[in-house]
Write a structure and sequence with these properties.
Elements (H helix, E strand, L loop, with lengths): L10 E12 L3 E19 L7 E7 L1 H7 L2 H12 L7 E7 L9 H16 L6 H12 L3 H8 L2 E7 L2 E7 L5 E8 L5 H6 L7 H20 L2 H7 L6 H4 L6 H10 L4 E4 L6 E6 L3 H11 L5 E6 L9 E2 L1
Parallel strand pairs: 3-4
Antiparallel strand pairs: 1-2, 1-11, 2-4, 2-5, 5-6, 7-9, 7-10, 8-9
Helix pairs in contact: 2-3, 2-4, 3-4, 3-5, 4-5, 7-8, 10-11
């Protein structure tokens, strides 16, 4: 997964993609790596005992205020190896909005793990990094996708984490839109019911099968059927003003399917390239608020690599 350990490198850099999770029925399981990046440059601080941060732009200021997962993940690797982490300077530039359901903490976790792995005297295995990402995040979908790239289904079990790679057709793009309002994962989990009707519980696995085949074949009807969810989307949609209408507008604009990205507040659609811009505009136009961002994102199919600067 990594190049040889870079113990002597004075400065390292990694660019980690964002991710969407769930895509409807893949709750706490399915992650898809997408083309918004967290870029981190690392320099070891000789003679210092504390980490430092420098913001290079984008959402980095929001990220540092709300998320210390990067240094936590970095220190976690050294702790697992029985070592003390060196104090480092992290220069951070982020295209990923925080608390919008686009995997900002998962990307930060992946970046910290990868940078630490590159500096450590023993390079951890891919399996170790995946397990440590799960331990830090509490759920495996976002960090796994950011570490590996592509579309991943991550299943925790007694002996670790099993990851299955799913194919995404090259004709597919993923329009997204997000409002200024944020939805924390913690709050989004609190609105979920403690119990579900049996019929709802058994429906999601059926839908997930359709979704995965729809992504593989770029088949509109399978994607439409596949994103329908009964575990979390009906309970999270009311947290996002205008979301239900925005999803309907995206479908009318030609989206194969549309749903909540992660726990929100971003919305995401599955589209062919021809309709991508129109679908993103429809999502953004339906959301309430003065400031709504929109993008047409591509799957990121390869894992991030640490490089010397």
């Amino acid at each position: 997964m990594l190049d040889d350990p870079l113990c002597a490198a004075p400065r390292l850099r990694v660019r980690v993609p964002c991710s969407t999770s769930n895509l409807g029925p893949g709750f706490d399981l399915l992650g898809l790596s997408l083309s918004l990046e967290l870029e981190v440059e690392l320099r070891v601080r000789s003679g210092s005992s504390t980490h430092a941060f420098e913001e290079l732009g984008g959402f980095a200021a929001d990220w540092e205020r709300e998320n210390n997962r990067l240094p936590e993940a970095f220190d976690h690797v050294f702790g697992e190896l029985g070592l003390r982490a060196p104090a480092c300077s992290f220069r951070v530039r982020s295209q990923i909005p925080t608390a919008r359901g686009l995997g900002s903490t998962g990307a930060a976790t992946a970046a910290g793990l990868l940078l630490a792995a590159a500096l450590a005297p023993r390079a951890p295995s891919e399996g170790e990094l995946l397990r440590w990402g799960l331990a830090l995040e509490g759920h495996p979908d976002n960090a796994t996708a950011s570490l590996l790239g592509g579309c991943t289904l991550a299943v925790p079990h007694a002996d670790g984490l099993e990851v299955v790679r799913a194919h995404v057709h090259p004709d597919l793009v993923f329009p997204v839109a997000w409002p200024a309002m944020r939805v924390s994962t913690e709050h989004a989990r609190k609105v979920l019911p403690a119990e579900l009707p049996f019929a709802d519980a058994v429906e999601n696995p059926r839908r997930l099968v359709c979704l995965l085949e729809g992504l593989r074949r770029a088949e509109p009807e399978l994607c439409r059927l596949g994103v329908e969810d009964r575990l979390h989307v009906p309970y999270r949609l009311p947290l996002i003003p205008g979301a239900a209408g925005a999803l309907d507008a995206a479908r009318r604009a030609g989206a194969f399917a549309a749903t909540v990205s992660g726990s929100g507040s971003a919305l995401i659609a599955i589209s062919n390239r021809t309709r991508g811009l129109a679908v993103a505009a429809a999502l953004a136009g339906g959301l309430e608020g003065d400031t709504v961002e929109r993008r047409v994102l591509e799957p990121v199919r390869t894992p991030p690599r640490v490089e010397r600067v």
